[in-house]
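Final report, results section. Input specification for complex C-07:
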Amino acid sequence: MIRYIIRRLLGALLVVFVISIATFGIYFIAPKVTGSDPSYLYVGRHGSPAQVEAVRHAFGLDQPVIKQYWTYMTGIFKGRTFTDGVSTEYCGPPCLGYSFQYQDSVTALIKDRFPVTLSLSIGASIMWLVGGVAVGIISALKRGTLIDRASMVIALAGVSLPVYFTGLLLLSIFTYGPPALRWFPNAGQGYIPFTQDPWGWFTSLMLPWISLAFLFAALYARLTRASMLETMGEDYIRTARAKGLRSRTVVGKHALRAALTPIVTIFGLDLAGLLGGAILTEYTFSLQGLGKLSIDAIAKQDLPVIMGVVIVGALLLVVANIVVDVLYAVIDPRVRYS
Amino acid sequence: MTAIDTPAGNVLGPPATSFLAVRDLRVAFPTEDGLVRSVDGVSFALEKGKTLGIVGESGCGKSVTAQAILGLHKGTRAQISGEVWLNGTELVSADAEDVRQLRGNEMSMIFQDPLSALHPFFSIGSQIVEAYRIHHDASKKQSWVRAVEMLDRVGIPNASDRARDYPHQFSGGMRQRAMIAMALVNDPQLLIADEPTTALDVTVQAQIIDLMSDLQKEFGSAIIIITHDLGVVAEIADHVMVMYAGRGVEYSTADEVFYRPEHPYTWGLLSSVTRLDRVREDRLRPIPGTPPSLLNVPKGCAFNPRCTYRGTGGIPCTSERPELVATTPGHTVACHMPAEVRRAAFLGDIKPTL
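Structure output:
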């Protein structure tokens, strides 16, 4: 088991390394192609060539690519100092570069935005996991009945409706709707840190959670239903019933455990994907999370921020993959021994 | 042992006083294409310490019969009628919860493929413990001891260590032994084995059959063994019921069925046993045709399209369904041919070729 985890970790490091090269390639090549040198962004369109050159030199952009990459990578572990000749900024490890746009280190920006995305993702994921799996199980057990059909229609709607539609609908009812229905008046007005006001945090995030969870819950309900139906037809379920186990043991222990394996996989990846930024939801509810940060960075060609967010997102996905693999081995003994 | 000589349609069969009495059992599954009558009026009786072999081709309703006895169709869309009496209790009309408490306890089942029939995520020991604890108020520790004891009893070497292993770490034969240990952990009085040796090597098959007869001698339970392998039946069964298209077509003691069979389908089954002592072209003699679809069972005798004796002497094979009728005491056959004609046909046409 330990060896298995170590092997997976080494593989993961390699993946992150490759992603860092790919992203850095984009970081380096993109300005050449679009003609928008990052140093112009710092100096401004009307800066003199000498100023631009000075900035380029200060940020090391005139160095060979390999050297730049090396500087960037060592910065992650050792920290870097940025200077434009006037002011000096120390960017401590893990330093992911410096944003010309925000005049701040990328690490600080991500640290600032991550709690927003984390709150959004964790809350929503709990909601969709519980809701989606429960609906999926009930649908599978009541296959063909009205309950099954109704929940699958709702699930289809959930999968089809984009989050900004559901989100705006919810906002227009529960935040800006009739006074009697204004249950969440503080939704859509930015993030309230949990440490500052737990109740405000909860109520302001409720609608984003619901919109995001609805989308995913629908997907999970369908997935759980299919997986449950398949498992319920397995021979070992018949054996469990032949032993005289109660239906709830057969379903809750024997069937669910086997049916959940594909869901664990998808859940890990979905959650990691969201932690890297839930762009549409964050935009709809004016939440300044990682998604919003990256979309703004793309709009403004703030390459260090893009690079930083991509690397963090990739890292999250790789970690999620390992967690999923380990969970898989915990759930399924056949994985453990092969 | 009671003969079955009741006309169908009459919900009478063997008396309910037998240890197990199945009377006119019918199981049908509604599907989009129509009603599939998997079991269509099956009756038989079985006493403790005896073994009944149910023989027939795939899809003849053998397994459905067994699962209906165990009440595994309760709560599904299957339509069940008839009666199943176990030790004086009728199970078809009984409450699902009452049948559940009997299941795995009074009556238990061994399935065909032990790899898919055991849960891949739980250790062998814990699966046996679970079977024990659902019917006994025992601690986990006591139950584990019991599980190990059972594994040891069915011949698994080093049982206390092996109990912690998972099904995929067992060989096919060992898995089936574990399955038997699980089925027997509550000392059931009725054991149904659904093709217990089909998925196993021939050498292992013999061991499993021996194991089952040994355990039967020890515990005195009644066994129903479902198979299409006549060799298995010959070795273990006291009585044999031959099933075709959801109905019993011949029922008697194993000796009668093997040495004096009267139904053309039974003859076909006996002839189709592979014989290595013959010339190559003659080693395997299959029954011509295929089993009928249970959605659309042939009119009259279900076997008539495949029967070489169809219509001989003007018998109504394609119009009237033959009922199981006693030919000699304890031997019933569902065939329109007069008994003397059948016996003559067997002695003249079939026996010399067996």
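The interface with chain A takes residues 67, 70, 72, 75, 100-105, 108-109, 111, 113, 116-121, 123, 130-131, 134-135, 166, 168-169, 182 of chain B (CB under 8 Å). The two ends of chain B are 29 Å apart (CA to CA). This concludes the modelling results for the funded period.
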